[in-house]
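How a chain folds remains the central question behind the approach discussed here. For one protein, we set the task of working out the C-alpha cells from the amino acid sequence alone. The sequence in question and its C-alpha cells are set out directly beneath this paragraph.

_____
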Amino acid sequence: MADVARLAGVSAQTVSRVSNGFPGVVEATRQQVLAAMKELGYRPNSAARALKRGDFRTLGVILFNMSTTGNMRTLEAVATSAAEEGYATTLLPVTVPTQDEVRGAFTRLGELAVDGIVIVMEVHLLDTATVSLPPSAQVVVVDSNAGDRYSVVDTDQAGGAAAAVRHLLDLGHRTVWHVAGPAESFAAERRVAGWRDALAAAGRLGPVVLRGDWSAESGYRAGRELLKHSGCTAVFVANDQMALGVLRALHEAGRRVPEDVSVAGFDDIPEAASYTPPLTTVHQDFAEVGRRCVASVLRQIRNGEAERGTDLVPTRLVVRASTAPPPAYSD
C-alpha cells in the first residue's frame, strides 16, 4: 500500500479508501490510485481487511438436494442478491439428509470465514436440538417451520396450492386429485395442506394423495396410477417436473389434456410454457425469496441481533392451456 501511495502521489489513507470502495475520493485521484495499483500488481489482502473490519463479506449457504429446480433457483437468487450487496457466497451441499451430515455442514461453516448463513433445507432436520448453529453467525432459513427460532423466508406454498385447486373447482370439476412431493418435505407438506383446505372450503371430498419425489419419472408413475380412476378429471401436481410425467402418462393412455383431464402444476419453471399443452401452474418468485433472505441476514449482521419469524413471498396462478371445464360425461 505504501508503494502504491508513493507512485500515485497520495497518502496511504487515500489508497485504503479507494481499495475499500469508500466514497469521498475525488474521481481523478481515484483513477490515479487505481492506475498505480494496476502498474504495481497490487491487490487488497481480503484476509487482512476482514481481520481489521471484523467481517468477511461472505455468506455461507447450506443446501440439501441440488437436483430440484426450486432449490437451484433459490441458490441462484441468494448468490445474485448477495453479490449485489458486495458479498460472496460459500456453498456447502448436504448430500445425505441425516443429522450428522447437517451438523457437519454447520461445523465446517463455523470454521470458514462467513458472516451469515442461509439454509435451504426442505427436510425436517433443523427441528432437532442436536443440531447447533455457529454461535457467531446470523442465520436465515428457507422453507422451514422454524420461525419461532430463526428468520424464515418462504414462498406462500399453501396459498399457491389453494389457488390452483380453486381454479380447477371453478372450472366445474367435482374434485381435484393431488400428486404430492415427498412426505419429509416442508414444501410438499404445505402444498398438501393448501389442497385439502381448498377442497374442504368448497365442501368437496379429497381423493387419496399420490406421492412422488419431485422428478418427472415419479410423476409418470403417479400418472399411471391416476389412470386407474376413471372419475379423475382434474389433478394438481406439486411441481412442474412431476406434472410433465403426468402429462406423458395421460398422453400414452390416450387421455387428452385438458379435454379429458385438466392438469395444474407448481413452480412455473421456464419450460412450463412449452409443455404440450402449455401448463397452468403456480408461479414462485425465487428472485424475491433470495432478496429477502439476503436482506434479513444482512440486517442481523449489521444490527448484531438475530431475527425470528416467517416472511411469506406471495405466489400467483398462471393459467395456460392445460386446464379447462370437465368433459360432459363426468356429470
The first strand starts at residue 58 and ends at 64. The mean pLDDT is 87.
